[in-house]
Amino acid sequence: MTEPAQIPPQNYAPKLEGDTRAALPLVGDEREILLAYLDHQRATFELKCSGIPPERLSELSVPPSGLSLHGLVRHLAGVERWWLRMQFAGERLPLLYYSDDDPDQDFDDLGGDVEMALAVWRKECARTREIVAGTPSLEATGVHAATGEPVSLRRILVHLIAEYARHNGHADLLRERIDGATGH
Asked: 131 near 140, Cβ under 8 Å?
């Protein structure tokens, strides 16, 4: 290995107060890296929702957007269930916060208990972790519902990382507007 071409910066972006996330690995096999990044994205999302009074999680704080942290919690719970439990593992379950008659209810219908929505999201994440831990190969496939084609666990994990990364950007803005908290 060669030495870095320049001295690393001394001032990094500040972390959000209360950040207890584990550092991401710099080396590891593909599964280890993918799962570490997915769990880091999940932990980032949970951190963005922490320390806020529950009723404020439903605020639409970035008009004209209809996004809220509560809606994102509901959406991400549905994403976890849809991709890992239903498409990959083939579990026959009802969709969360979605119907063909009301496809945006995860964001639009914020009735109900925010703490319950967080509990549902955590439960879906835990079940996803169980499914992944019980799957020996990233090459294992489920059935992609839209096409009927096989979809690999690898592809699903990358999709989830991208989904969380996109919505963590939304959560950054929502959180800053709610209470001014910033940090990565």
From this structure: no
For residue 1, the model assigns a pLDDT of 63
Q: Hey, which residues does 141 pair with through a beta bridge?
A: 152
Give the residue from 175, 153, 154 showing the smallest Cα distance to 44.
175
Residues 6 or more apart whose CB falls under 8 angstroms from that of 24 comprise 36, 37, 40
Residues 6+ apart with CB under 8 A from 75: 97, 106, 107, 167
- Alpha-carbon gap, residue 156 to 99, rounded angstroms: 22
159 sits in which H/E element: helix 153-179
In angstroms and rounded to an integer, the radius of gyration of the C-alpha atoms of the chain is 18
Distances 46 to 2, 35, 52, 153, 168 between C-alpha atoms, Å: 38, 16, 11, 24, 10
Would you state the pLDDT for residue 116? Answer: 95
The predicted-structure confidence for 41-91, as pLDDT tens digits, reads as follows 999 999 999 999 999 999 999 989 999 999 999 999 999 999 999 999 999
Candidates 89, 75, 99, 86; CA nearest to 174 is 75
Among 82, 102, 91, 96, which Cα is nearest to 146's? 82
Contacts of 13 (CB under 8 A, 6+ apart): 183, 184
Question: Which stretches of the chain score pLDDT less than 70?
Answer: 1-5
